[in-house]
Every structure is written in structure tokens, then in C-alpha cells.
């Protein structure tokens, strides 16, 4: 990509100190503006990532031990085990989500595009991964109904739009986990949502009462909230377990 340049005319007439200072200031401003424009137009940095293991439907590990968290999605949680005994049941479609991610990513070399590396509170790098055909794995998992759109604050507008459209298609077709979720009565009951956090709460969940009035929004059904990109608050146990 060719860099943009700006031509600065030389001062005319006798060169005085005042003219020299003025010329240098103009020259610096022109250089600074050009660099800013060139930086803005740079393509996103592309990196290559090798996946060694898949932890669940949205988390992977590289050979170096670095954890990767797929940006903009949330997979159902797997059952929690202790000494090979289930101590907490997993959620519906958790196993299917992990299996599909293994098919798409395990032992594969994938690419990611980002202006800078972003990490969550668990020190996992947040990424959107692309296969060899430049198909987004995050988007594909949403389209197949294996995961739920998760409105991360650091999602770009373009990513949010793509991911939400993929989820809307899965909900409409009742693919994957949505077939069971949409068969439940709670999917058609009214919910209260937080416009700021993008979380929704069934009316019998106490968390909804804490939403500030200016951030409250009501949806006729939970399905409607999901179609608008809102995520079920974790404390409300909206999603079905195995």
C-alpha cells in the first residue's frame, strides 16, 4: 500500500527566522497528519495460530500453553468433574459445541486479525479465528446454533452485526441448541433487560430489579431479546442443563 504524502511549498522571498519557524511548524503538521492517515489505513494485523487442544466450545490452547477465548460467543458450560465424578451438571449442547470446535480447529493452523491483542480477566486472548478459506469460526458456530452471541464490549460494530445475523438465522431455523431452548415456556415469557450490559432477566429473577431506570428495556419474550442480541444473565439459569 502506497503511503500518502503532502507537499509543503518552500517559503518565498528572503528567509527570515520568523518564516523559518513558520515553515518548520507547517512541515511538522503535514508530517504528523500524513502519519496519522497512514496508520488509520493500515490493514489489521494478521497472525497465525496453531491449536493444540480444545477446552470447550469457546476456549482453546496453543502449543505454548496460551489460552484463546473466541470473541463474541459463549458456549454452554460442560459438566464439572472431580475425581471422575460429576459434581455439577453441564448445559444442553455443551458436548456438541466442543466436538464441533475440535473438528474446525484442533491441530489446525488458523489466522486471526486484530489491531492489538486483547485479554479477558482470565488472561485468555480474545480472538476471532479464520480457517484456510477465511471463514470465521466464531460466526460459523453461531450460525450452526452451537453457541450464543455474547456482546463483548470490545467487539467491533462490523463483528457484532455479522455475529448477530448468524445467531438470528440459527434461532429462526431452530438449529442446534435453539431447538430445545425454543421449546421451553420461559423463551416466550416477558423479560427485563439492561441496555448498557446487554443482559436480560426473566421477571422471576431478582437481578432485573437492580437495573437503573435509564438502562431498563422490556421485551415481550426472551426470544425477542435474543434476536436483538441480548444475553441471558448467568444468575437467572435461563439455559437448560443436560
Task: Give a verbal description of the structure.
The protein is an alpha+beta fold and 242 residues long. It has 3 domains: 1-42, no CATH class; 45-177, OB fold (Dihydrolipoamide Acetyltransferase, E2P) (Beta Barrel), CATH 2.40.50; 184-242, DNA Methylphosphotriester Repair Domain, CATH 3.40.10. Helices cover 29% and strands 22% of the residues. It has helices at residues 17-40, 94-105, 137-143, 157-173, 178-181, 222-227; strands at residues 45-50, 53-56, 59-61, 67-70, 73-74, 80-82, 85-88, 109-114, 125-127, 129-130, 148-149, 191-194, 199-202, 216-219, 231-232. It starts with 16 loop residues before the first helix and ends in a 10-residue tail after the last strand. Mean pLDDT is 86; it is low at 1-6 and 32-44.
- CATH level-1 class of the largest domain: Mainly Beta
What is CATH's topology name of the largest domain? OB fold (Dihydrolipoamide Acetyltransferase, E2P)
Number of strands: 15
Q: How many discrete structural domains? A: 3
What portion of the residues fall into strands of 2 or more residues?
Answer: 15-25%
Order of strands across the biggest sheet? 2-3-4-9
Order of helices and strands: HEEEEEEEHEEEHEHHEEEHE
Number of helices: 6
Mean pLDDT: 86
Enumerate the spans where pLDDT stays under 50 for 5 or more consecutive residues. 1-6, 32-44
Helix content: 25-40%
Radius of gyration: 24 Å
Tell me the overall shape. Answer: globular
What distance separates the N and C termini? 52 Å
Largest sheet: 4 strands, mixed
Structural class: alpha+beta
The second-level CATH architecture of the largest domain is: Beta Barrel
GO molecular function: endonuclease activity; hydrolase activity
Domain TNase-like: 45-180
Protein name: Nuclease homologue
Keywords: Endonuclease, Hydrolase, Nuclease
Amino acid at each position: 500500500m502506497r503511503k500518502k504524502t503532502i507537499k509543503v511549498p518552500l517559503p518565498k522571498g528572503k528567509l527570515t527566522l520568523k518564516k523559518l519557524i513558520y515553515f518548520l511548524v507547517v512541515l511538522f503538521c503535514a508530517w504528523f497528519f500524513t502519519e496519522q492517515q497512514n496508520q488509520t489505513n493500515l490493514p489489521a494485523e494478521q497472525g497465525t495460530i496453531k491449536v493444540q487442544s480444545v477446552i470447550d466450545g469457546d476456549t482453546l490452547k496453543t502449543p505454548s500453553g496460551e489460552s484463546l477465548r473466541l470473541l463474541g460467543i459463549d458456549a454452554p458450560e460442560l459438566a464439572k468433574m472431580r475425581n471422575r465424578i460429576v459434581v455439577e451438571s453441564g448445559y444442553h449442547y455443551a458436548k456438541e459445541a466442543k466436538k464441533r470446535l475440535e473438528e474446525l480447529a484442533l491441530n489446525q493452523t488458523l489466522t486471526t486479525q486484530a489491531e492489538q491483542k486483547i485479554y479477558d480477566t482470565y488472561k485468555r486472548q480474545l480472538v476471532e479465528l479464520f480457517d484456510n478459506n477465511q471463514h470465521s469460526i466464531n460466526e460459523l458456530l453461531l450460525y450452526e446454533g452451537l453457541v450464543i452471541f455474547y456482546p463483548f464490549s470490545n467487539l467491533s460494530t462490523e463483528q457484532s452485526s455479522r455475529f448477530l445475523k448468524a445467531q438470528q438465522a440459527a434461532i429462526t431455523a431452530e438449529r442446534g441448541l435453539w431447538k430445545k431452548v425454543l421449546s421451553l415456556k420461559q423463551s416466550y415469557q416477558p423479560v427485563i433487560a439492561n441496555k448498557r450490559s446487554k443482559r436480560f432477566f426473566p421477571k422471576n429473577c431478582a437481578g432485573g430489579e437492580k437495573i437503573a431506570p435509564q438502562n431498563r428495556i422490556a421485551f415481550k419474550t426472551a426470544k425477542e431479546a435474543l434476536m436483538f442480541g441480548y444475553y441471558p444473565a448467568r444468575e437467572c439459569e435461563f439455559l437448560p442443563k443436560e
